[in-house]
Design goal:
Number of helices: 12
Number of strands: 10
Radius of gyration: 22 Å
Largest sheet: 8 strands, parallel, barrel
Bound molecules: zinc ion
Shape: globular
Strand order of the largest sheet: 1-2-3-6-7-8-9-10
Structural class: alpha/beta
Distance between the termini: 40 Å
């Protein structure tokens, strides 16, 4: 081969190689949005939001918190009021599929079995599953309180709890035709309690990891991926992140005990705490999650892009993306997002609706 030919081949290879770099740098594989399932009468409105806002802004993943708002056939006794029908769900799934969005249904497992002065459906119907049956739900909820009650948990060692919750999980996965399921598992304050006859004296990290692994193994049998929030796997004391976005109840060592194919949603709402590399270095796929501050969200997204650029090939794909979270009811969010009601002050500060707009704008700039 002549030297000139070698030169031209080399030049073409270089040009092709170089032109592929910006595309790789400009993409995040997961561009997510997490929100509560709409009530049945808001399904059409919600589908308009999917088609007019999520799809055009490059969102490709929708985590939908369903909990007990589905008309479960396996356990009709666990249906909340205002539950979605199968036809409602199929409409949402169809709109998402048409727009190239992967839908991941969520039921809060382990923790979040109550909210302030309201007991969740699972413990209302099955009080035996309560990790802390001696703690009563107060009429007027206040934090902090003497019981350390944020949300109730179910006992992960109760012999009957998994038959019930896995029936719900299986039903949702089926109706959503999902290849991933979100089990929540954030902010579990009550775990391994001294007065629980099954859990007392047990290591809390092992209890938490045991529950994650059990759910993961159940899903893995049908090829379904498990997603969870990441806070219980971070050490709140050493990092200074504290008891909400990280753990102060000794669960953080579970990070070395749970299977690496669990996808971690690393949520930070006040600062862009750079904990994603910690999860990635442990072998987990990680998605960064903002909520209420646009500038924090932009930093989180930029960080993920930078981590992808500056990492080894082994680490790069684990920095999978970002997901905006919305914690107000879907109908309220839609009314605020579309300006049908005046802006509502968020009691925790910041502006989730504005943050959602910012994140969607950031996603829109990314390559598909
Ligand atoms: Zn227990």
């Amino acid at each position: 081969m002549k030297l000139r030919t070698v030169f031209w081949i080399a030049a073409v290879v270089l040009v092709i190689g170089a032109s592929s770099i910006p595309a790789a740098e400009g993409s995040l594989p997961i561009r997510g949005f997490a929100i509560g399932a709409p009530s049945p009468e808001r399904v059409n409105d919600f589908i308009d939001f999917i088609e007019d806002e999520l799809v055009p802004n490059n969102v490709n993943t929708l985590v939908l918190r369903v909990d007990f708002k589905y008309r479960y056939k396996s356990h009709p006794e666990l249906r909340d009021e205002d539950a979605l029908s199968k036809a409602d769900v199929r409409k949402i799934v169809k709109a998402c599929r048409k727009g190239g969005i992967r839908v991941i249904p969520q039921i809060n497992l382990l923790g979040h079995q109550s909210w302030q002065s309201e007991l969740g459906k699972l413990l209302e119907v099955y009080p035996d599953f309560d990790e802390t049956p001696w703690i009563e739900i107060p009429e007027t909820y206040q934090w902090p309180n003497a019981d350390g009650l944020y949300c109730k948990s179910y006992c992960p060692l109760h012999p009957d709890v998994h038959a019930v919750v896995f029936a719900l999980v299986d039903e949702l996965v089926k109706v959503f035709d999902a290849d991933a399921f979100h089990a929540g598992m954030d902010e579990v304050f009550h775990i391994g309690m001294d007065r629980c006859p099954r859990c007392r004296g047990r290591d809390r990290a092992e209890l938490f990891a045991g529950e994650v692994t059990r759910i993961r193994n159940h899903l893995a049998r049908s090829g379904v991926e498990l997603w969870i929030w990441g806070d219980r796997l971070l050490d709140g004391t050493t990092t200074g992140i504290g008891e909400w976005e990280a753990s102060m109840n000794s669960t953080h060592r579970a990070i070395d005990l749970v299977p690496k194919d669990v996808v971690i949603n690393d949520w930070h709402y006040e600062r862009a705490d750079p904990t994603a590399p910690y999860f990635a270095a442990k072998g987990f796929t990680v998605v960064t999650c903002p909520w209420k501050l646009g500038e924090v969200a932009v930093t989180q997204i930029e960080d993920m892009m930078r981590f992808r650029r500056s990492s080894t090939p082994e680490m790069r794909e684990r920095f999978a993306g970002a997901m905006q979270t919305i914690w107000s009811p879907a109908g309220d969010f839609l009314d605020q997002y579309f300006g049908r009601v005046p802006p509502v002050e968020n009691e925790y500060g910041g502006d989730p609706v504005e943050c959602a707009r910012t994140v969607l704008e950031e996603f829109e700039k990314l390559d598909e």
